[in-house]
Amino acid sequence: SAYLSGNLDRFFQLPGGSLGWSAGFEYREEDSNNGQSFADLNGLGFGGASILATAGSYDVAEFFGEARAPLLADLPLVKDVTLDGAIRRSEYSTIGGTTTWKVGGQYAPIADISFRSTYAEAVRAPNVGELFDPGGQTFLFIEDPCSQPNLNLGTSFRAANCAAILSSLGVDPTTYVDPNIGSVRGLQTGNADLEEEKAKTFTVGAVLQPSFVKGLTLSFDYYDIKLGNAINTLDPQDIANQCVDLPTIVNQFCDALTRAPGTDLQAPGGIVDYLIQPVNVASFRTKGVDFTVNYVLDPANFGATSDWGVFNVHLVGNHLHELSYVNLVGADPDPQKGELNKPEWQGNLDVTWVKGPVTINYGLNYFSATQRYTLQEIAGEPDIADGQYLKYSEKFSHDIQARWNVDDHYEIYAGVDNFTDQRPDIGESFYPVSAVGRFFYIGATATFDSLGAMLSNK
Description:
Blueprint lengths: L1 E6 L12 E15 L3 H4 L12 E22 L2 E15 L3 E15 L2 E12 L3 H5 L3 E5 L17 H11 L15 E5 L8 E12 L7 E13 L2 E2 L3 H10 L6 H4 L1 E3 L11 E6 L2 E2 L2 E15 L12 E17 L7 E2 L9 E11 L2 E10 L2 E2 L3 H6 L10 E2 L2 E11 L4 E8 L21 E8 L4 H7 L1
Parallel strand pairs: 8-13
Antiparallel strand pairs: 1-2, 2-3, 3-4, 4-5, 5-6, 6-9, 7-8, 9-10, 10-15, 11-14, 12-13, 15-16, 16-17, 16-18, 18-19, 19-22, 20-21, 22-23, 23-24
């Protein structure tokens, strides 16, 4: 890589200062070779699945440039106005050429507050594993979405699509029940036909540092991210569901499944094979707000004459406004806000007190209640479960730790994680918290400038 940077002061200067710039070139070669043991290569492990070695490489040449322009500064109601931008052209040996860019700006009317915004278009090229994984067998369970008990647990297209698929195999869709009672064998591979992901990101936010509250910083950022051609590796259950939940069965998910004909005596109409591989799904979108609060409280700033130590409060949080996938062009969005691992609210709070050699910290990890079933399943079958079991509980995990610096070389610490002993929800082992429960620990650290010197001191 190589780059040049500087400013244009020799030619002109902006009212807010120097126009800075940078331009450069970068060339990269990336290769990966993930070997496997004899047992894995020959399917001698659990389930008899063969796990093959993954090897592949690609190279990319990139040219880039960026600039920062301070337009105005130190004027009435204009403490700072700055614009910035960047552009990058990349040539990949696997996917061809891509262009990414961004524009942004900052406006601070006074020193206490500043506003910022950015619009960017970015890409992510598929990696070696996603492209070149040669594949191997896998065995996984699939609940057939076309089985009579599952017909109402998907979109409005499921019943008609299942009827079309089963009828073409010579199976009566009105009486069909999944014939598989065990796991189904499939193949998992990479996908050499992958294209780059393309993202459009818009953010706008503000940073507040009020001079009348020393030590306080607050920031808020709204984001809107659209990801097109997103690379996703679906498990066979998702593949089976998406095949029949989309407006048409002419899609890449149905192509990845094999069903037995109605004349098959063991599994008539059942799923007997599948292909798992990363694919470029249609789109993904998320919106929300990130916020942080940081407050350093020193009682001495309020006139305290005794040493009360220093307190620090730090909060990082997020409100998820929207999260949805469109798995095929023309399909209805699949809203997922509030589903498993996608809470509407989440945050981490840390409160720390430091006085001399002693540090005490309290931490809270929180996220709001989430759905036990997908929103599509609930819409299709409102009585899928008793009301008290439709949602997982909120996560409230409280941690406390104390540390004592004995001297420059020794430190003792002790603490308890999840001290309220929150347990996993019914039917779960690790959600919304680990099954370990309340956890106590104690320990010490020692730092030696010179091991020989420390021993001689003893």
